Amino acid sequence: MSSSEINKEFNLVVLISGNGTNLQAIIDAIENGNLPNVKISAVISNKSDAFGLKRAEKASIETKVFPLQSYLKGGEGRDRSTYGTELAKLIRTYQPKLIVLAGFMLILTPSFLNEFENNQPHVDVINLHPALPGQFAGAHAIQRAFEAYQNGQIKHTGLMVHKVIEEIDAGEVIMTAEVPINAEDTLDILEDRMHKTEHITLVSAIKKLSQSHL
Fold first, then answer.
1. What's the pTM value of the predicted model, to 2 decimals?
2. Is 39 exposed, middle or buried (CB count within 10 Å of its CB: 0-12, 13-18, 19+)?
3. Locate the Formyl transferase N-terminal domain: which residues (predicted)?
C-alpha cells in the first residue's frame, strides 16, 4: 500500500457491548469491498463476554475490554467522568477518523464527547438508534414503537444513524430508514426486520461519511 493510499484510509474504532451483529455487518462490508478504504483498527467493549469480541478476533481486528465497574467503586479520581476521559485517551491511540457505537450500551459522558469535539483532530462519534428522529429516544425503542402501532399512534417505525451529543439520541441525523409494521407482526418479527435494516443502514452511513472524507 502506498503512502497516498494510507492517507486515504478511513479508520474506525467500533464500541460494542453484546452480540456484535452490526459490527459483523461492517466487517462483511469491508471484506466484500462495499466499504473501500475503510479499516477497523480496534473493537472496544465494556463487557468481557461480548460475543462481538470473538467476531473481531476472527477478522484479525485488535480488541480491548474497558469495563466501567472498577470506576464505580469510588476512590480518588475514579468515577464515570474519569472513565469517559480514559476511554477517549485509549481510542485516541488508534487515530480513528470515526467512532462507531454498534450496540454500545453505556451513555457516553461529557468528558468523553468533549475530547473529540474540542480537541484536534476532531472525530465524529455516531450511533445507530432503532427509531426515527424525534421518536422513542432512549431504551426499548422497538418495543415502544410496537406498542404505539398497536395503539394506533404510528403507522410505521424506522431507525436513524446520528452524531452523538450529550442529549440522548438527539444529534445531527446522518441517515434514516423507514421500517414497516404489519398487523400480524409479533415483537420478535419486528425486531428481526429492524435488525436487518440496521445492518444495511449503518454500512451505508459509514460509506457516506468515508467518501465525504476523501
1. 0.92
2. middle
3. 11-206
Closest C-alpha among 92, 125, 131 to residue 106: 125
Nearest-angstrom CA–CA distance, 135 and 29: 29
Asked if 20 and 53 touch (Cβ cutoff 8 Å), the reply is: yes
The percent helix, strand, coil of the chain (3-state, each to 5) is 40, 20, 40
C-alpha to C-alpha distance for 147 and 182, rounded to whole angstroms:
12
pLDDT tens-place string over residues 102-139:
999 999 999 999 999 888 999 999 999 999 999 999 99
For residue 11, the cross-strand partners are 39
- Rounded CA-CA distance 81/164 in Å is 17
Asked whether the CA dihedral 109, 78, 95, 65 is positive or negative, the reply is: negative
The residues carrying an active-site annotation are 129
Q: Name the packing angle between helices 21-31 and 187-212 (round to 10°).
A: 40
CB contact set of 186 (below 8 Å; sequence gap of 6+): none
Give the closest residue to 10 by CA, choosing from 47, 41, 45, 55.
41
CA distances from 47 to 53, 64, 67, 77 (A): 9, 10, 6, 22
The C-alpha cell at 187 is: 415483537
Domain 3-129+160-176+198-212, what fold?
Rossmann fold (3.40.50)
Q: What's the length of the chain?
A: 214
